[in-house]
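Batch manifest line 280
LIGAND: zinc ion
JOB: complex structure
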Amino acid sequence: MAWFRKDKTGLTPQEKKNIPEGLWTKCKSCGEVVYSKKMEELLWVCPNCDFHFRISSQKYISLLLDDGYLDEYDVNLSSQDPLKFKDSKKYSDRIKQAQQKTGKIEGVTSGMGKIGGIEVSFAIMNFEFIGGSMGSVVGEKIARAIERAINNEIPLIIISSSGGARMQEGILSLMQMAKTSALLAILAEKKIPYISILTNPTTAGVMASYASLGDVILAEPKALLGFAGPRVIQQTIGQDLPEGFQSTEFFLAKGFVDCIVNRRDLRDTVIKFLHYMWRQ
Ligand SMILES: [Zn+2]
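JOB STATUS: finished
ARTIFACT:
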């Protein structure tokens, strides 16, 4: 006979099953565990260390645009597979899977909306769609968003998050850098403002084209920004890289980013800049 019996204070397997998944969220940066509902209220910014979790493009639309409404354009523009590319998977299958997983047709959502009553041409990249990579359709949709800003004489806002050009379309992806940059030059000539917002991560071909060409460049705290990865750079220049290299804070210190903006202040900051820069 046992002298001591352990009280059954633990949860039964059935009780464990009844706890909804994702009730708590652990911060990837500081390890703090926060009630997920609280995180939602805080716009997925860690209350302990200010780490900005990645949120969906739909959440940014709700956060930034008046009434959370975007009149979406070019909805059905979808990537082809001109090179019949195959690595571990066929590119055409990769696109289909991304579409099923995300419910999006491509790596960017674009259209027209209002921010603080000011009409804008708006585009936001969907990072969950093949790493927010820029193929010919992403480039074309960005180009058309710029053209809408030019033709309607309204400011342009682009929120970027991208791993760079989409290698499965080879040179066709790289050509999007020139196409979008040339159109942004026309926008600049017309003196129409462009606010570029960088979120975690914004790198490679997207960073080296439209993401870095804003009249004002805003960035979320602690985002990874840059062109090539640190190891490639280190091997190329044969030198150790400084601490914090490729963070938003480093880019601000070097004058590449104009302003680091906490997500909860993003809408107000954009409105403030639009008032400074644009006729009412
Ligand atoms: Zn944290």
